[in-house]
Amino acid sequence: MTVGFIAFHYPRPEHFDDFVARVHEVAAVLRSVPGCLSADCWESTDGDDAVVSTGQWESEEAFAASFAAVAAAEVDVAFDDREHRARQIFKLAAR
Questions:
Q1: The CATH number of the domain where 63 resides is what?
Q2: Residue 47 pLDDT > 80
Q3: pLDDT of 12-44, one tens digit each?
Q4: 65: closest CA among 32, 22, 27, 23?
Q5: Residue 50 CA to chain centroid, in angstroms?
Q6: DSSP letter string over 35-86?
Q7: For residues 79 and 51, is the Cβ–Cβ distance under 8 A?
Q8: Into how many domains does the chain fold?
Q9: Contacts of 41 by beta carbon, 8 Å cutoff, 6+ apart
Q10: What does DSSP assign to residue 13?
Q11: Which domain holds residue 71?
């Protein structure tokens, strides 16, 4: 079963560019793991200043391996005061 996620992030304006760079770094680590079909960073164009991260994997195992790789790589995924609103993260499954 293909699995994925979509996450909405709301960085403060003064941290927006840095946050986008952080998401690109995480996406690169996710994509480095076999079984990751895609991992991308998007920016909203509706004035909400949201950063949206997406990913898709061949299996639950590949999904878990990608996030284990992120933890091992020690990339910055911290939620802190650089974001002005809680993240919304949705795990997805295709049937």
A1: 3.30.70.100
A2: no
A3: 999 999 999 999 999 999 999 999 999 999 999
A4: 32
A5: 12
A6: TEEEEEEEE-SSSS--EEEEEEESSHHHHHHHHHHHHHHT-----STTEEEE
A7: no
A8: 1
A9: 20, 23, 24, 27, 51, 52, 53
A10: G
A11: 3-93
Q: Which of 78, 65, 46 is nearest to 55 (CA)?
A: 65
Q: 3-class DSSP state for residue 18?
A: helix
Rounded to whole angstroms, what are the CA distances from 68 to 1, 10, 32, 75?
Answer: 19, 24, 12, 11
Rounded distance between C-alpha atoms, residue 89 and residue 86, angstroms:
10
d(CA 58, CA 74) in angstroms, rounded, equals 24
Which structure tokens are listed for 54?
Answer: 């997406």
The contacts of residue 75 (CB under 8 Å, 6+ apart) are 22, 25, 26, 29
In terms of pTM, does the model score above 0.85? Answer: yes
Question: For residue 55, what are the β-bridge partners?
Answer: 5, 39
- Joined tokens for residue 46: 């509706």
* DSSP-derived 3-state class of residue 19: helix
